[in-house]
């Protein structure tokens, strides 16, 4: 090996870096993902620290051979609704199709259905229709009122455009015509659904196009920043949701929604099977749980099935949207350690907004709000000593337990509304019970969706 190699997990709150020197020695660093006093990427800063380079100096060519990156940048942008505003172009008469979906209910017996709304979308209908065999029933019509509506959407802050038309997997001519016509209008990104997936069914293909259009600009800016900091001589590879690596130029945002968790699953299963073998035990089922700052990921892998345990799902659901992208069997909810606890005037809510790394949870000494991490700290489920001493103005102080208690005392007073407030511990426990309730509800929804898909196949 001629140079250093680095493996990075870039989360919304913490970034973990493992480096291997040319001599084979391993070095580990853990840093905050957002550092106000340092505008560059925290992972690159950690690499410079390992290599004893000044914070802003370029990496010497050949010093770093390869960087492999797993990132939740796209996931967090979707879960926290930080993606770009998207204009959706769809066939006339189908404006509500992606909202209606396939009509399965999140909770079969709930009287009031609450669906997540992770994307900011403006739907515009397009005249033109293809038959199921790909023949043209009605020619595509562009210009005129459609161009005026698109210009207005751009003025209102919708920076990207997704095109999802009926039967475009069989004949993409109308989507290609729209794409060529949209090119000079100046959208930050134009996504054609047939280029993302060749599978039938407009609803999941259209929702996949929406996700790609919303989070691709966020992911692209991040990867460009990392590659620029590493220099063109450093090989950069990004983990896909399927557990495979890809060059940034060959990467679609929809394929990185579970990038970070996929790397965690690959590593966890490998370590788990090695531990079982070292103990003289046969392969066993493995359950993984990864609670990050913004999201929580869980998986199950039956190690007894060998290579069959790595089956990829061609379609998955995240934030209420169906994505046509090969993914490892990982389930994600918008409830991480940094999920903010707040009182909306009627009840205690958790997330989906995250405190991130700046200001971070209240314990991080940056004036942050109460979060799930703080609730676990207050209840003693997470010892203060378990967090690294990377907080405060100089990044060298331990977590602050006193301010955590003050935040929950304040929340308890808001919940009481002038009456007798509950104890801070009761508020923290209530927030964690809310997370468990949401997780159970999501599991029921996934089971119902799976049964619905099986009935459709029959």
Q: Your description of this structure?
A:
With 458 residues, the protein is of the alpha/beta class. It has 3 domains: 4-78 and 220-256, ATPase, nucleotide binding domain (Nucleotidyltransferase, domain 5, 2-Layer Sandwich), CATH 3.30.420.40; 82-215; 339-435, no CATH class. The protein is 33% helix and 24% strand. It contains 11 helices and 18 strands. Strands 3-2-1-4-10-11 form a 6-stranded mixed beta sheet. The protein has a 5-stranded mixed beta sheet with strand order 7-6-5-8-9, sandwiched between helices. Strands 12-13-16 form a 3-stranded antiparallel beta sheet, covered by helices on one side. α9 (372-378) packs across α11 (424-457). The longest helix has 34 residues, at 424-457. It is globular and about 70 Å long.
């Amino acid at each position: 090996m001629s140079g250093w190699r680095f493996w990075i997990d870039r989360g919304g709150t913490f970034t973990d870096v493992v480096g291997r020197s040319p001599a084979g020695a391993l070095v580990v660093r853990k840093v905050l993902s957002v550092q106000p006093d340092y505008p560059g990427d925290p992972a690159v800063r950690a690499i410079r620290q390992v290599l004893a380079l000044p914070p802003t100096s370029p990496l010497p060519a050949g010093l770093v051979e390869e960087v492999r990156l797993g990132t939740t940048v796209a996931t967090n942008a979707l879960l926290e609704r930080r993606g770009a505003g998207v204009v959706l172009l769809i066939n006339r008469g189908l404006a509500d199709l992606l909202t209606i979906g396939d009509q399965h209910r999140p909770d079969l017996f709930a009287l009031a259905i609450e669906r997540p709304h992770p994307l900011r979308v403006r739907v515009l209908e397009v005249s033109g229709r293809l038959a199921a065999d790909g023949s043209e029933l009605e020619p595509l019509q562009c210009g005129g009122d459609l161009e005026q509506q698109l210009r207005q959407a751009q003025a209102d802050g919708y920076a990207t455009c997704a095109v999802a038309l009926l039967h475009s997997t069989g004949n993409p001519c109308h989507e290609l015509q729209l794409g060529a016509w949209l090119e000079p209008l100046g959208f930050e990104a134009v996504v054609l659904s047939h280029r993302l997936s060749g599978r039938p069914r407009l609803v999941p293909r259209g929702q996949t196009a929406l996700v790609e259009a919303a989070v691709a600009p966020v992911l692209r800016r991040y990867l460009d920043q990392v590659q620029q900091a590493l220099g063109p001589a450093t090989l950069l590879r990004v983990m896909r949701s399927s557990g495979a690596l890809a060059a940034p130029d060959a990467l679609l945002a929809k394929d990185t929604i579970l990038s970070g968790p996929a790397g965690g699953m690959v590593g966890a299963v490998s370590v788990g099977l090695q531990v079982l073998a070292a103990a003289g035990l046969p392969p066993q089922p493995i359950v993984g749980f990864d609670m990050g700052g913004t999201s929580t990921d869980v998986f199950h892998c039956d190690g007894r099935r060998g290579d069959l345990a790595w089956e990829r799902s061609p379609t998955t659901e995240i934030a209420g949207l169906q994505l046509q992208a090969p993914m490892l069997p990982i389930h994600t909810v918008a409830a991480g350690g940094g999920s903010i606890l707040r009182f909306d005037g009627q009840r205690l809510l958790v997330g989906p907004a995250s405190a991130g790394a700046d200001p971070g949870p209240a314990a991080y000494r940056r004036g942050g709000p109460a979060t799930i991490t703080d609730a676990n700290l207050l209840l003693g489920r997470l010892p203060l000593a378990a967090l690294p001493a990377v907080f405060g103005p100089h990044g060298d102080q331990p977590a602050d337990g006193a301010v955590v208690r003050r935040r929950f005392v304040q929340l308890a007073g808001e919940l009481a509304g002038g009456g007798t407030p509950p104890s801070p511990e009761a508020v923290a426990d209530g927030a964690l019970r809310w997370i468990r309730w949401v997780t159970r509800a999501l599991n029921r929804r996934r089971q119902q969706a799976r049964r619905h898909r099986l009935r459709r196949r029959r």
